[in-house]
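Q: Give me a protein?
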Amino acid sequence: MISRACCCLALAFLALTSLSSCGESGKKRGETARVTGVLMEARGAQDIRPAASDCWLAADVGAMLTEGDTVWNSADSTVLVQLTGGAEMWVSGRACFSVTTAGGGAPRVELSYGGARVQGPERERVIVGTPACAVTASAGKTSRADLMVTVEPGGAT
């Protein structure tokens, strides 16, 4: 016969393990997450926290970013992300960012801290949001949008 203490311990373990969503994308069953970018090049250490997850996973070249995922770049790291719609983003040094899609399908980078350079294709726009403001760069018919943003510790842009 199982003791009452063992049952309580087993229930507590199940409750604690069910709280973790490590490795889950945060999407509901049957729902597909919108891809916002792909890690094309990486030097150093990068981690991804999938949307609605409570843990960080090591990021490798080829990893797909979906709506709501957060990427952390270590101090001596560089990463190149190909964003949907053709924009490219370089992030170097200690940085934390996520990518969503703004109205009209334009990529919107949410940069919590660190530095990023975003280049958009011709006739497109890119948006970089920071704790202090949002900046939009629009491309012309024959030019690319080019935007460089640095967020200092504490959120100053």
Observations:
- The two ends are 64 Å apart (CA to CA).
- Helices lie at 4-19.
- Confidence is low (pLDDT under 50) at residues 4-20, 25-30.
